Amino acid sequence: MNPLSELQLDTLTEIFNIGAGRAASSLSEIVGDQVKLSVPRVQLYKSSDINAEVLSLNGLRVGAVKQSFSGPFDADAMLLFTEERAMEIVHDMMGSQVAIEDVAEFEQEAMCELGNIILNACLSSMADMLDLSLDSSLPIYSVGATDLILSQIVSEADQPVMLVLHIDLAIEKHLSQGYLVFLLSSSSLRELLAHIDRFISRI
Amino acid sequence: MPHRNNIRTLLIVDDSRVSRMMIRTFVLAKHPQWIIIEAASGNEALEIVDRDTPNYCTMDINMPGIIGTEAAAQILAKYPGIRVAIFSANIQESHQTRAATLGAKFVAKPVTERTVALALDFFESQT
Q1: Which of A127, B25, B31, B98 is the most buried if burial means most Cβ atoms within 10 Å?
Q2: Whole-prediction pTM
């Protein structure tokens, strides 16, 4: 079930890896600590198979910032943190401007802005490498069960097969884990692959 | 535009209240006497510049209503003396090129002391 050639898969993984590197560097600047990246994973899944366990997303409840990108191809992007760590990250982001007891008031807006920065950092560098331009929707933040958040995106996309790109972000200071997940519908795949091929031909 | 006693007016345009707060805090730490005005959208910014023409402006890109680069283009067409820093998470080259064409400074988010300093350096540099 893999219409991507080995070279296409390798190229897409590397482009995603570079985008994730840009995202990690933005996150590191925000939390003031080193952010470690796992090996990126790029794989096609049957939509009905996509769940938290398959994607190794630990943590039953997460804070998720979701943003849709559209252009030559469409993608749903998500930044996930385990729920309790999200608050610590908001506190880091806002520093001394907000007392710890007031952080909850800003959680929604701060996480939207954080997701906006991280997801755009990744997608922007990928778009530039592929020589295309993508528009992004405004970010939406929700807290809930990882499976529920994933299934919402998958059912909205309404596609039999989806390409999933994901990578783990580990913030050392908080011993916390975040995830960057992109889901592409199969209808977008052809356009994406055309751009990947063009990228390869320029190397 | 008020120039007395080094008082400058800065318009911060961003749909994120958190980002506006952070920009405001870092700017006031360096320039406590500056007057800060905030707008939550490009459309609101266009109304404000007609009323209280600022010296400087920070402009987000992805906002409800007109996007920031378009708002900046309209502001600069009318008030070429305002120095505009495009402060955005959307770092695609197309946006950076657009900012350069407008004569605005492109600053990549996140909002930090360092990135705010980049905008301030641009505001205070003489053309």
Answers
A1: A127
A2: 0.82
Residue A59 gets the label, from left (phi > 0), alpha (psi -120 to 50) or beta, of left
What domain range is B66 assigned to? 4-124
Residue A1 lies in a domain: no
Interface of A with B in 83-142 (CB under 8 A): 93-94, 97, 106, 109-110, 112-113, 116-117, 119-121, 124-125, 127-128, 133-134, 136, 138
Mean pLDDT of B89-101: 90
CATH code at A75? 3.40.1550.10
Domain harbouring B94, CATH code: 3.40.50.2300
* Contact yes or no for A128 and B90 at CB 8 A: no
Q: Is residue A165 within 8 Å of residue A185, measured between CB atoms?
A: no
Number of domains in chain A: 1
Higher pLDDT, A98 or A155: A155
Between helix A6-31 and helix A83-94 the angle, nearest 10°, is 60
Determine the structural domain holding residue A98 and report its residue range: 6-202
Return the beta strands (E) in chain A as ranges.
35-37, 41-46, 61-70, 75-82, 135-136, 140-145, 161-171, 176-185
